[in-house]
Structures are given as C-alpha cells and as structure tokens.
Design a protein that fits this description.
about 20% strand; about 525 residues; 14 helices; 5-stranded parallel beta sheet; alpha/beta; 7-stranded mixed beta sheet
C-alpha cells in the first residue's frame, strides 16, 4: 500500500482508498471526548464544545473541553517550567526527538486523514496530503537544524584577548494558534519550528477541528519531555486568553483581522513580542492572450475548488486579457461543471462541503451580491440537494471594476473573472488588493513572465502551472510566504528562513582562554 500523497496527486491505489474509508468511518463514530494536555497529563476541565461533521451535520464527530483562563495559565506555566531544560537540549538531540515524532505521524497517516476528513469534510486526496505534509514538515525543519545547529557564527575580533560569537537563541514560550482548514499540518508546521529552535509551546487547535489538533499534542507528548508541548482546546475566548497570557511570542494562521490584532496586542507594552502570522489571501491568476487556455483553465480549477476554496492560497480571481476572455471562461466553466460535489466517503468526490452553515450563508450572500451588480453566473451559484453544508463551485464574470467580490477574501469555492485590455493592466489589477500571498500566470511570452515576476506583489508565485495555478506549496520545495496583509514577518513556513523567526540574535564577547 503506497500511502504517499501530496497536493498535486490525482489518485491513490485501491488499498489506500479502502484504508482511508475505514479510518473515516471510525472517526465518524468514535464519540471521542478530548481533554487538554498540560505538563504531559490529560486535564478534563471546562465546558464541552461539540464538532459536527460538515458533510453530515447530524453526526457529532468530536467533543472537547474548552479551556478557561485558569487552564490557559496552567498550560503557559507548564511550558515556562520546561523551557530552560528544553533550551539547553542540544539541537541534534531536539532534531532526533522530532524525527521520532515524524515517524509516528508517518505510521498513522491514514488514521489521521480519516480524522481530518470527518471534522472538515476534506476529500481523501486533500486529507491524505495533509497527513503526509505533517511528516515532511518535521523532516524538512529537522534537516535544517541538523545542518545549522543554533546558527552559531565565529566573528572577527578587534582585541587578540577576546573572541566574539554570534548565535540565535529561542524566545521561550510560543503560543501556536491553528486554523480549521489544515488542522494537523499547520499546527505541526508552527509547533515543530518553535520546538526545533528550542522554544516550548502551547498549542490551541481550531474548535472546528479539535480531534485533528489533539492528535498533534498526543504524538508530540509521546516523544518529548513533559511540558515541552502543551495543548488546550477552545474557541475565540480561549484564543484571546492565550494571546493575552505571558507567552513570549505567537505563531498564528487565520484571518487578517485576528492576526493583525495579535500583532498590535503583542506590540503593546514595554517591549514587543514576535507574531509570526500567515493570514490568507485574495489570490490571482493572470491569463495572457498568449496563454495555453486549457492549461490555465485546468490550473485555476484545481486551485480554486480543492478543499472547497478554503485554502489560504486558493485561486479566487482571474484577470484575463479581453481577447481570450470568452474562450477562457468557456473552458473553465466546462471543467467546473464536471466536478463532483459529494461527501468524502464518495470515491468520486472532488469537492466536499464548506466548513459550516455560516460559510454556506456567506456563499449565498456573495452570489446575491454578484447578481445585484449585474454579473453573469457562468457556473454554480447555487447549492446541491445534499444534507450537509454543500455549495456548488461557482464562476462569476462581468463584475464592475473594483467590486468588493474581487477584493475581499471569501474563503469559498467562488471565482471571479475580470477582463482587461492588456497584460500591463492585468498586473495592475492583480496588485489592487490588500493581500499578497499567492499568484499565478499563464503566458507563452518570456518577457511577460519576467514582467510578472518583477511586478507582482505576492510571496508565492507559479508560472504556467497546470497542476495548480496558485496552490500546492510543499515543505522544502516551495515556501509559503505572505506579503502585505497576508503575512506579518515577510518569511514563510515550509521554506529555509522560517525557523529563524522563532529566535533572536545574541552577540557574545568572551576572553580568550
């Protein structure tokens, strides 16, 4: 059985498919009640919150205790108690322990994929891809630490009786606040980076996917010293309490509004504390009149509707030269209309439900707004006759220039197509948003490629990528770096510069011995 899947995969072997279905059924019927993990011990305090299966809202697939202020403080205290010993653990030893963590994630990939799918409605390819990404994230970061250690550099000296060293040191305790859309992989991403650089962590997974996050805390605690990796559950109130607590920094993935509020909160006081935040996007694909339109339509379709458009990097708008607008829209619409929308246990499902009914209602409001503006609904625009939080993949054309639907992140399977008169105008329109996460281009003109790469205001760029116009970043292959409102640090997870954000520089001058 070959269980290795990534976000560019288009299929899996039959044995893996059967194993996934078994894991999904087990997750749907587990009736699990989740506690917090503090100093290596399970703590079952706080009111219970319930998570329903978005494909079958009558199924409660997980319950978790919500941490109150006292429980949050206990978790932070446990991390603070453990931080000195963990900081003094050699980078090589930390990497060895984390590689053991990665091996357990690898052994449990199919089980984890079933849990993710039950809580989020992800298709089997998306869920197995996420489980694999968790493994590859740890391996990628562990290799960096093995190569670089604590980034200790011998410096020059102005005095022969002195020696000078520069190194990077951990901050201390990091809060890790994860999203619902990649509830295992992105909690692993942030926590593994913090841990490998010598910080301890308090992880708070999304209340929309508590079981997917709890697996992270469980596996970490199977291999790491008590108190190094703590995990608490809860919703917005728990997240606010953790943000307001005595942590030394925050790693966050979620909305721009919440992320920038964290930046302001941790910047207030006698000194600032770091916030490493990835905060979504309004990701664009530029289509030139010279483009291979079949490749462009395929790339946009795969990027826009995987995970029901609920990826930070999902393509949500296309800017196309007017000469090829109609042909491109026809090709995209043909592909979108052929997609299968179904629950993840259906082997033919390409797109599952959105995360909850609030998201489905946001979809309905967006469609109504497009109609009011006189736009054309090229595909979708409605909801299928299914019991869960399903919406149909949608393509909109003909919106007025600068319409809010082309500017605001919706986090839905909803794509706007805008016609412009030139490639130059396409770049201007592509940049006319506050976000700057991912962007793609389709063109056969090398000069246009260079123009795009030079001018586009985004951190993750793809050229003529049929397998995903704006999506598919993978650890050690593409970094995931947000510009503008999409990121607070200018550095991206998955890549070579992320770990340094969890450290601060220290210069040491000592007498020669």
């Amino acid at each position: 059985m070959n269980t290795r899947v990534n976000y560019a995969s288009t299929g899996m072997d039959p044995d893996t498919a059967t194993a996934f279905e078994d894991a999904l059924q087990k997750a749907r019927t587990s009736q699990i009640v989740l506690g917090h993990v503090i100093a290596g011990h399970e703590v079952t305090e706080g009111d219970l919150i319930s998570r329903a299966n978005p494909a079958h809202p009558d199924e409660i697939v997980s319950r978790a205790h919500a941490a109150d202020d006292a429980t949050v403080a206990a978790a932070v205290d446990a991390a603070r108690e453990a931080k000195v010993a963990w900081r003094r653990t050699s980078p090589v030893r930390r990497a060895a322990l984390m590689r053991a963590v990665a091996r357990e994630f690898d052994d449990r990939k199919v089980e984890i994929a079933g849990i993710i799918s039950a809580e989020t409605g992800k298709s089997r390819l998306e869920a197995l891809g996420e489980a694999q990404e968790a493994v590859d994230l740890i391996d990628t970061y562990a290799a960096q630490v093995e190569d670089e250690g604590d980034n200790r550099k011998r410096m020059k000296t102005a005095d022969p009786n002195e020696e000078n060293t520069d190194l990077l040191r951990p901050y201390g305790v990091f809060a890790v606040i994860g999203p619902f859309n990649f509830p295992t992989a992105l909690n692993v991403n942030m926590a593994a980076a913090a841990l490998l650089t010598g910080n301890t962590v308090v992880i708070k997974p999304s209340d929309k996917a508590p079981h997917s996050g709890a697996v992270v805390g469980q596996i970490f605690n199977n291999h790491l010293p008590a108190g190094v990796a703590n995990l608490i559950h809860g919703g917005a109130a728990t997240g606010i309490a953790l943000t307001d607590s005595a942590v030394d920094g925050i790693a966050f993935t979620g909305s721009a509004e919440v992320g920038w509020n964290m930046v302001r909160t941790l910047g207030d006081g006698p000194f600032g504390r770091p916030v490493l935040a990835e905060m979504g996007g309004k990701n664009v694909t530029v289509v030139s009149r010279t483009a291979d339109l079949d490749a462009a339509a395929e790339g946009v379709m795969r990027s826009a509707y995987g995970l029901s458009g609920q990826k930070c990097s999902a393509c949500s708008r296309v800017v196309v030269e007017a000469d090829v607008h109609d042909d491109f829209v026809a090709k995209l619409t043909e592909r979108v209309s052929a997609l299968t929308v179904a629950a993840p246990e259906d082997r033919d499902a390409f797109m599952g439900p959105v995360i909850d009914e609030s998201a489905a209602e946001r979809f309905e409001k967006a469609v109504a707004s497009a109609r009011e503006a006189g736009a054309t609904i090229e595909a979708g625009g409605d909801r299928p006759d299914l019991p869960g939080h399903f919406v149909n993949p949608t393509v909109i054309s003909g919106l007025p220039a600068g319409h809010d639907l082309t500017r605001t992140e919706l986090f839905l399977p909803f794509v706007t197509v805008t016609a412009v008169d030139s490639f130059d105008a396409a770049i201007d329109e592509a940049n006319a948003v506050d976000y700057g996460l991912a962007a793609g281009v389709f063109t056969a003109d090398d000069d246009e490629v260079e123009e795009f790469l030079d001018r586009i205001e985004a951190g993750v760029l793809y050229v003529n990528r049929r397998s995903g116009a704006t999506t598919g970043a993978w650890p050690g292959i593409q970094s995931f770096c947000g510009w503008k409102s999409s990121g607070s640090s200018g550095k991206g997870g998955l890549g070579p510069w992320y770990l340094q954000g969890f450290t601060r520089e220290q210069s040491r001058t000592l007498p020669v011995r």
